[in-house]
Amino acid sequence: MEYSAMAHADAAELVRGKLVAVVGAGKSAMDIVAQCAEANGSRYPCTMVYRSAHWMVDPKVARRVKFFTFTSARWTELMVHKPGEGFLLSLLATTLSPLRWLISKLAEVYYKRSIPMQKHGMVPDCSFSQGSLGWRLGILPEGFYDRVDDGSVELRRCRGTIAFCADGLVLDGGAVVGADVVILSTGFHIDQPLRDVLASPWFGDMIVAADDGSAAVLPLYRHCVHPRVPQMAVVGYAESGSSIYPYEMMAKWVAHLLDGAVRLPAVRDMERGVAEWARWGRWARRACGGFFLKSCIASVTTWYHDQLCRDMGHRPRRKAGLLAECLQPYGPTDYAGIQ
Hints:
11 strands; Putative flavin-containing monooxygenase 1; alpha/beta; monooxygenase; monooxygenase activity; FAD/NAD(P)-binding domain; flavoprotein; FAD
């Protein structure tokens, strides 16, 4: 049964008056846990079973520290390496890396003090710097830890295996989590849906990188078109902090390509561009200590959008004035005029 595909009323009826166990600790898992807690309260507490925690930021705390200013403004992108950036920008990113570390460390300390993650054993294994580069971040549901305190949410960390049993779930070591309903919110194999679209295994091997996890990005030009199969476009694979408007930008780029407004370079030039992103992906994966989502462009989203804008014949600088360009965060409204 696909919980995410159910109508809201049917999903609410499924969990109402039942002990629910949710496996996972990402944004979707926490949203489901919060919904179950709101429906059932402490009489039927919802149990969240997880192996590792993520950096889930309380929305009130995020607004207080202007979280998105630090994740989507141009001045913050100067502190990270970018694909095809050139010598000067590479030198600048290397020079500013201690500043990026310091800002991330201050944010990490502030979030730990402002959000009771230590009290409830929800401190992530990765640093905030690693989490922000690989986008292992999310917004915490409103009042989540208040629900933990009042008993409507229970947290169970399990480093080992999790299995089903007659009473619900059995954790590594034999502990049983009683549950009438178990919801798996552990994500999915991100490559499989794309492979399933392609009837030819040969095309699947060409478009989708190896299953051994060695590839950090998909081998697509502008994250959309394979250099040797330009007749097919992929939109929506790359991960970002706010995925909807980057996907919209990809769709606009593909629409311009179909209209002839975007002209693809030679195959060799496209492969060179893909290789630049692949090298950057390997650097990002090393910098994240393994906590890097595949084809994640979260830390360089504006840089990526600049490339798309140039291809489409639009100016990449979308703000009014140099100061605003450097300091204000970028968002969907900045690209709304591109049709």
